Automatic annotation (TrEMBL):
One Gene Ontology term from the biological process aspect of the record: response to yeast
Chain segments carrying region Disordered: 674-697
Main location: membrane
UniProt keyword annotation of Transmembrane helix present: yes
Key word Transmembrane present: yes
Family of the protein in this entry: Belongs to the major facilitator superfamily. Proton-dependent oligopeptide transporter (POT/PTR) (TC 2.A.17) family.
Name of protein: Solute carrier family 15 member 2-like
Origin species: Pundamilia nyererei
């Protein structure tokens, strides 16, 4: 019997397992918290590719548990499997960190190293996933089921404690610490690698205290053979032999009834798991679609990657609240709480979370400028002529109203093109007009800048950047109306403008008040500019004019600032976390409690496999459907509610089993059969002595 903690029924060995899990989850979630932004800003991938690779990696992390379970239950045992695959895990982290060093090779090498590292990480984390939880459960004696249930709650809290701290620390290391002239992804990925080394050392340190269950041979292979034999026998003999109560009973002539009953137990649970991937399809979008939603919101208090820690923090708060308050209160009301009912309610809460995300998205997209459809472009007019002007484009009645001098355009208008040509007719209110034809690209956005010249008025067409910054920061450019070049410094960015209505490229600046910006002319004259607030998600054009001998800025908002505060995401996080507590923790313990002793890692792997298929669902919808984001959110919510109904019906017909009681029953039957066999042998001997003949068996 192993050592206990302070006279309780909790083994000391679980302390090492819980600390190991904390460090491993810090390692995993610390890396994963930056993954989407790493793809977008470092590897320069677009949103869809970043989302696809993110979910492909997440899915692989939950497909590989099958490999880990096979190795643990059939070959090495849980203890050695955890150690060997943790080493693979560490190597993956190191390779991933090296791939984030800008000075190491080309972009292609960075991508190759990053993908290789992620594959090794997926093999490591996925391989040990089904083993660590089951290994922790193995530390408890059979009679301590209550303590084991509490262990799974503590185990899950350690997961989220690691997640919580990592999602605070690693983004700070990336953004606030600068290395190689930019964000320090190498350091941010290196710290999780170090924590994985600590996790491995801590786990090995507890080696002398662990209760180890030896591998039972090639269990998974034997299960597959038994199922195959049953199906083959049923096909060959069902026509002339009497029917069996269960199709697996056709294997009883070759395999033991114990194995057949254990396979029945596992298959009943696995069938119940079929609807579960839809929950994970919603849950795992916190790190992809919800992160991207956050980049288009007002981030006055928090960066988009930091709100991922909210889920982990809420888990730490919700687990004791549910275990100590909510569940006991529900039982006092006379309602029976079963694991499957908890899981069904978890699905409902996740669907409500995506309903809340839909409402947020509907308001968020109001500040987003969508590209023009095929055969058209987006157009806005900036009037720098002293008089009011109007503009007409064939095929549209837009811009007919007078546009005042330095008026901030209300927004982009969609204008049809004629074979890629934009035809314009400009009229000055106080006299004068001209026509122009300009070749442009469809689906893009442009600003028509009308300004005076020596002959009257003329124009220039400037391509605009309408895509919001991936990290939510504002974009800024300058338009110089002066006859000499100007140089403006905003934060760490320098904008140089040649003379004559020249426009700079857009550059990303930090959100904030810019009331004392330095502007230096080519002749050496210095002016101080007050740009005011440059807000999250906006794209600004600042027109520099001269008034009373000074350079004066006039700010135009090409793309509106994000006006929905990120605090509006809190309700969806509260709902999804409540759903996670009821669904995930319960499912983890349910998978362990309903599994035979020699198949616990296999069933844990089956549980984790539902997460993998959930990510596959996201890949299919995100890449294949091409829906607007709010419609996609609503679709997921409706699908999960439908799946919840199916799951509830299946759960109603499920019969809970106690593998330990079945184990005792098998032993009793085995003893009884041995006693019967001994009795028959003795009886035969007596009869043989009397008659010289053996009783026919």
């Amino acid at each position: 019997m192993g050592k206990k903690i302070f006279g309780t029924n909790y083994p000391v060995s679980i302390c090492f397992i819980v600390v190991n899990e904390f460090c491993e989850r810090f390692s995993y979630y610390g890396m994963k918290a930056l993954l989407t932004l790493y793809f977008l800003t470092y590897l320069k991938w677009d949103k869809d590719l970043s989302t696809a690779v993110y979910h492909a990696f997440s899915g692989l992390c939950y497909f590989t548990p099958i490999l880990g379970a096979f190795i643990a239950d059939s070959w090495l045992g849980k203890y050695k499997t955890i150690i060997y695959l943790s080493i693979v895990y560490v190597i993956g982290h190191v390779v991933k960190s090296v791939g984030a060093i800008p000075t190491v090779g080309s972009t292609e090498l960075h991508i190759a190293l990053s993908m290789s590292g992620l594959i090794l990480i997926a093999l490591g984390t996925g391989g040990i996933k089904p083993c660590v939880a089951a290994f922790g459960g193995d530390q408890f004696d059979e009679e301590h089921t209550t303590e084991r249930q509490k262990f799974f709650s503590i185990f899950y809290m350690s997961i989220n404690a690691g997640s919580f701290l990592s999602t605070i620390i690693t983004p700070i290391l990336r953004g606030d610490v600068k290395c190689f002239g930019g964000d320090c992804y190498a350091l941010a990925f290196g710290v999780p690698a170090a924590l994985m080394v600590v996790a491995l050392v801590v786990f090995i340190a507890g080696s002398s205290l662990y209760k180890r269950t030896p591998p039972q041979g090639n269990v998974l292979w034997e299960v597959c053979n038994c199922i195959g034999f049953a199906l083959k026998n049923r096909w060959n003999k069902s026509k002339h032999d009497p029917p069996k109560k269960h199709w697996l009973d056709w294997a009883e002539e070759k395999y033991s009834m114990r194995l057949i009953q254990e396979i029945k137990m596992v298959l009943r649970v696995l069938v119940l798991y079929i609807p579960l991937p839809m929950f994970w399809a919603l849950f795992d979008q916190q790190g992809s679609r919800w992160t991207l939603q956050a980049t288009r919101m007002n981030l006055a208090f928090v960066r988009p990657y930091l709100r991922e820690m909210l889920n982990a923090l809420l888990i730490l708060v919700f687990v004791p609240i549910f275990d100590l308050i909510i569940y006991p209160l529900v039982r006092l009301c006379g309602l029976k709480i079963t694991p499957l009912r908890k899981m069904a309610m978890g699905m409902v809460f996740a669907a409500l979370a995506f309903g809340a995300a839909t409402l947020v998205e509907v308001n968020v997209v109001k500040t987003v400028v969508n590209p023009a459809p095929a055969g058209k472009c987006l157009l806005q007019v900036v009037n720098l002529a002293k008089d009011d002007v109007s503009l007409k484009a064939p095929g549209t009645d837009l811009f007919l109203q007078s546009i005042k001098y330095l008026e901030d355009p209300p927004g982009y208008e969609t204008v049809p093109l004629s074979n890629g040509e934009l035809n314009l007719e400009v009229t000055v209110v106080n006299g004068g007009n001209f026509s122009a034809t300009q070749m442009v690209e469809e689906k893009k956005a442009y600003s028509v800048i009308i300004y005076p010249d020596a002959t009257g008025i003329t124009y220039t067409l400037v391509e605009d950047h309408i895509t919001k910054n991936e990290e939510g920061n504002p974009l800024l450019r300058f338009l110089n109306t002066q006859p000499e070049a100007l140089n403006v410094t905003v934060g760490d960015n320098n904008f140089y403008m040649s003379s004559g209505y020249n426009v700079t490229h857009n550059k990303t600046v930090q959100r904030g008040e810019y009331t004392d910006v330095t502007c230096i002319s080519n002749s050496g004259k210095t002016s101080k500019l007050n740009l005011g607030l440059l807000d999250f998600g906006a794209c600004y054009t600042v027109i520099l004019t001269e008034e009373a001998g000074k350079i004066v800025p006039h700010k135009i908002e090409d793309v509106k600032a994000n006006n929905v505060h990120i605090a509006y995401q809190i309700p969806q996080y509260i709902l999804i976390t409540a759903g996670e507590v009821m669904f995930s923790i319960t499912g983890l313990e349910f998978s362990y409690s309903q599994a035979p002793a020699n198949m616990k890692s296999v069933l844990q792997a089956g549980w984790l496999l539902t997460v993998a298929f959930g990510n596959v669902i996201v890949l299919i919808v995100a890449e294949g459907a091409g829906l607007e984001q709010w419609i996609e959110f609503l679709l997921f919510a409706c699908l999960l509610l439908g799946v919840c109904v199916i799951f509830s019906v299946m759960a109603h017909f499920y019969t809970y089993v106690d593998p330990e009681e079945m184990e005792k029953l098998y032993l009793e039957n085995s003893v009884r059969e041995e006693d019967d066999s001994d009795f028959k042998k003795k009886n035969n001997e007596i009869e043989l002595n009397k008659t010289g003949k053996s009783t026919k068996m």
